[in-house]
Amino acid sequence: MKIQKIKKEKEFFPKEYRAYGRGIKRIEYANEEGSFLIHTQRPSVMIVPLTNARDIILLRKFERGPRRWAWGIPGGGVDAKDRGSFRLAAERELCEEAHVHVKRMKYIGAYFDDVYSTGFSHAFVAEGCRENKMLCKKHHGGGRAEDGDVFEKKFFPLKAFRPLLKKGNIKGVPISDLDVIYRGLDSGGYL
């Protein structure tokens, strides 16, 4: 299949978006009527943090879009100080949001955020995570999450994590096809 040619493109950078490396593009394709709003954003990272005891570390946050509390994993944008390294960004985000240091970091892959976005999230599994605020301060300048970013951190045994996922109490906005596939297969006992 051919990639559609763009007939017209205009980019908007609302002031509050610029600080986070985000913008909005209005795109008109040559062979379609109407236009589409596309969110532009810098790459980001998402980390699944696991302890040696096989607990998953989740963070409870207030999600502004859906206006609800949800458990989620650490993650955020790749900054200039990460020097283009997704791994460095993942380590920094773990320190900033969860105050944990990681022993091993495994790259899972890159996933696009949604079909109307230029953003890609680079996913990692962090094994051997342990709480260490001092080490985070030494290597990452203290680990400062955005004000109001993280309200609670909890270590969940993997057995307790699955029911949370099934009930929809894990952040998944926007929910991806991958989320739906996993939840569908899991609820049917296929996994």
Automatic annotation (TrEMBL):
Pfam families: NUDIX
Segments forming domain Nudix hydrolase: 40-178
UniProt protein name: Nudix hydrolase domain-containing protein
Species for this entry: Candidatus Sungbacteria bacterium RIFCSPHIGHO2_01_FULL_47_32
CDD domains with a match to the protein in the record: NUDIX_ADPRase_Nudt5_UGPPase_Nudt14 (cd03424)
InterPro entries attached to this UniProt entry: NUDIX_hydrolase-like_dom_sf (IPR015797), NUDIX_hydrolase_dom (IPR000086)
Lineage of the species this protein comes from: Bacteria, Candidatus Sungiibacteriota
